């Protein structure tokens, strides 16, 4: 799970980042509202933790901007303002939860888990589609332009991850952690081999390749090339 923390207090940010990483989350940190808004609108995260009072752009404006663009990424608001009216303003701005400072990390973690479960329950996906490539998650079938493919279990898992992150650069580290469950690089060509096999199956014989290598960065499944 990728979490974006937008928090200008360095000590609070360090405390949250350390705790979330120890709990298995991938965390990115932005120290001001402007940087946070750019990250939130240009990258994909599973959840946001947003301080209310931020330099340049305040937290409520960040969330309102995202909601106005139909971005429903779950957002937990952090604030020293704990009156009922303050909480109501935060929730009406589009926040999914509101946590008053100071707080115990265990409570923050529990609230993040709750809003993530709520999001998953409300957005169950059964079919993925990128251009004419389709994956039926219930039937466990893949096809392109109506032509079915037989994929090995690891190839299927790899393609599912790429399709869920279509249009984004997926790094080797992301693939190792999420497809192979490695939290280190074994220094083998296992990813290259599987990418090559997958490309042969989903792109060979089609005019437009979907699985692209982004030199020096990773891979991207996308139909804009």
Automatic annotation (TrEMBL):
InterPro entries registered for this protein in UniProt: CheY-like_superfamily, OmpR/PhoB-type_DNA-bd, Sig_transdc_resp-reg_receiver, WalR-like, WH-like_DNA-bd_sf
Domain Response regulatory: 2-116
4-aspartylphosphate: residues carrying this PTM: 51
Keyword annotations: DNA-binding, Phosphoprotein
OmpR/PhoB-type domain residues: 125-223
A GO term for molecular function: DNA binding
Pfam families (alphabetical): Response_reg, Trans_reg_C
Residues within the DNA-binding region(s): 125-223
Highest taxon above the source species: Bacteria
Presence of keyword Phosphoprotein: yes
Name recorded for this polypeptide: DNA-binding response regulator
């Amino acid at each position: 799970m990728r979490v974006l923390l937008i928090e200008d207090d360095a000590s609070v940010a360090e405390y949250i980042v350390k705790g979330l990483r120890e709990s298995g989350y991938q965390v990115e940190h932005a120290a001001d509202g402007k940087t946070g808004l750019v990250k939130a609108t240009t990258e994909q995260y599973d959840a946001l933790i947003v301080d209310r009072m931020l330099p340049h752009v305040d937290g409520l404006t960040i969330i309102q901007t995202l909601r106005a663009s139909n971005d429903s990424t779950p957002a937990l608001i952090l604030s020293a303002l704990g009156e009922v009216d303050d909480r109501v303003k935060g929730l009406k701005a589009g926040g999914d939860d509101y946590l008053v400072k100071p707080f115990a990390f265990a409570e923050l973690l529990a609230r993040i888990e709750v809003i993530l479960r709520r999001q998953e329950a409300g957005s169950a996906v059964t079919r993925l589609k990128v251009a004419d490539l389709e994956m039926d998650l219930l039937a466990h079938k893949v096809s392109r332009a109506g032509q079915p493919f037989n994929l090995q279990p690891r190839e299927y898992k790899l393609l599912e991850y790429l399709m869920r992150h279509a249009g984004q650069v997926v790094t080797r580290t992301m693939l190792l952690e999420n497809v192979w469950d490695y939290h280190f690089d074994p220094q083998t060509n296992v990813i290259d081999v599987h990418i090559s096999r997958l490309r042969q199956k989903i792109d060979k014989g089609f005019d437009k390749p979907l699985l692209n290598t982004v030199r020096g960065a990773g891979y991207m499944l996308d139909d804009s090339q």
